[in-house]
Structure formats: C-alpha cells, structure tokens
C-alpha cells in the first residue's frame, strides 16, 4: 500500500509550528533530521514525521502503522537470534542509592532492568513514547500535556497513574534529594506547583518559559 500524503493543514492539527519547520526544511534552513526531531517533540509520531520529511507531506493516520512496521522490520534484520546466553560485564561505578541521583551510565544500566522511561530517545535523538502514550504542547510551547499510557502495572500489580509520575517529579525537583536532572528542569521555576494533575492519566506542565525540549 502506498502511503497517502496530506497537506500542511494536517500537520498544523498536530501542532501549529510543524508546518513552519516543514517550510524551513524545504528552504534548506533545517536538516531532515532536525525536522523529524522537532516534529516528534511537538507530538507527531516518528513514523509520520519520517514520511513527511522524505515525501514532502505527512502520512495520513492510516499509513502510520505501515510506516512504523516497515521501520521495525528493518531494525530486526540481522538482529540477535532467540536462545543462548549473553553475559555482560561492566564497571559498577558509584553506589546506586537513589534513581533520581543517577548521573552515570552504569547505574542507568542497572535501573533499566527493573524500571522504564516515560519517553525513550533513540540513537537518532528522536523521542518516542514509552510509559507516556503521547504528549501535546500549546502554541507557545510553555504548556505541555502528558498522556500516560493506560494498562501499565508495576511488578506488584499496582497500576501506573499520574500520582506515580508526579512522585518521580517530586524527587527530581527536591533539593534535598540532590537530583542529577534538577538543573535540566529549570523551566519549572515553581517546582511542583507548576505541575497539574488533570486526571488519573493526564498531567499538565506549566512552564515558566517556552521550551521545545521537554520530551
């Protein structure tokens, strides 16, 4: 099936700034990778953004699954075969005493065995949904809506909700915890007061200034 293309009007429905970045790419003021990164940061799926950058238009929703499936098949080619044993050794580095204080890759490798990210950035520096199902930004990119994936459970069976995500934010923003990422969240000058629990699976972030790098 040949992916359909749609106009910039469709892009604008995802976020009003995406057509602007699309024009910049066509004018040579933005690379294809930069366009894909900006578009996905603002809420367009990586598969749709890739088709938009390659074909001069955004793939219609019906073509999104096909584009992402082709991407997955390409990644699977030449991959590891099932079965066998893989032994991995690494330096452990500092003592792992609090996930919010992680600042080295070895600690992150350990935590990744039992925990997952809200968003997973790929080697192409494009953010893809993980525990978040999606996110949306307003036109000034100073208000972000985080939509948490439903049906995710912890090892003990408890359901992941907005309260759990907000707890993690409270650790990242607490001076006494000494979070390694607190400085990266400087757009939340009001701390937890800048975070709004909309419902069990939705959080709004009210930034002190616009920032496209939230995801």
In helices, the fraction of residues equals: 25-40%
Oligomer: single chain
- Point out poorly predicted stretches: none
Main structural class:
alpha+beta
The mean pLDDT is 84
- How many helices? The count is 7
Short description:
33% of the residues lie in helices and 15% in strands. With 215 residues, it is an alpha+beta fold.
What do these coordinates show?
With 215 residues, this protein is α+β, with helices and mostly antiparallel strands. It is built from 7 helices and 8 strands, in the order βααααβααββββαββ. The strands form 3 sheets. A 4-stranded antiparallel β-sheet has the order 5-6-8-7, covered by helices on one side. Strands 1-2 form a two-stranded antiparallel ribbon. A hairpin with a 5-residue loop joins strand 3 (119-121) and strand 4. Helix 4 (46-55) packs across helix 5 (61-76). The longest helix has 16 residues, at 61-76. The protein is globular. The relative contact order is 0.12. The model has no long low-confidence stretch (mean pLDDT 84).
Describe how the helices and strands are arranged.
Layout: E1 5-6, H1 8-14, H2 18-26, H3 32-41, H4 46-55, E2 58-59, H5 61-76, H6 105-111, E3 119-121, E4 127-129, E5 132-137, E6 143-148, H7 162-173, E7 195-199, E8 202-206
Which descriptors would you attach to this protein?
alpha+beta, 7 helices, two-stranded antiparallel ribbon
């Amino acid at each position: 099936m040949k992916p359909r293309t749609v106009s910039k009007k469709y892009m604008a429905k995802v976020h009003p700034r995406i057509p602007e970045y699309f024009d910049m790419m066509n004018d040579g003021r933005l690379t294809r990778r930069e366009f894909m990164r900006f578009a996905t940061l603002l809420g367009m799926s990586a598969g749709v953004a890739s088709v938009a950058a390659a074909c001069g238009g955004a793939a219609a929703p019906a073509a999104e699954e096909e584009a992402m499936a082709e991407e997955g098949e390409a990644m699977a080619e030449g991959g590891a075969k099932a079965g066998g044993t893989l032994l991995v050794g690494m330096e452990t580095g500092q003592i792992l005493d609090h996930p919010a204080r992680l600042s080295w890759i070895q600690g992150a490798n350990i935590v990744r065995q039992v925990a997952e990210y809200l968003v997973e950035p790929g080697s192409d520096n494009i953010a893809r949904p993980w525990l978040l199902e999606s996110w949306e930004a307003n036109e000034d990119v100073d208000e972000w809506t985080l939509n948490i994936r439903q049906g995710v459970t912890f090892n003990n069976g408890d359901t992941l909700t907005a309260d759990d995500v907000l707890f993690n934010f409270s650790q990242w923003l607490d001076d006494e915890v000494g979070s390694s990422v607190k400085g990266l969240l400087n757009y939340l000058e009001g701390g937890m007061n800048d975070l709004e629990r909309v419902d069990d699976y939705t959080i709004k972030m009210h930034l002190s200034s616009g920032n496209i790098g939230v995801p």
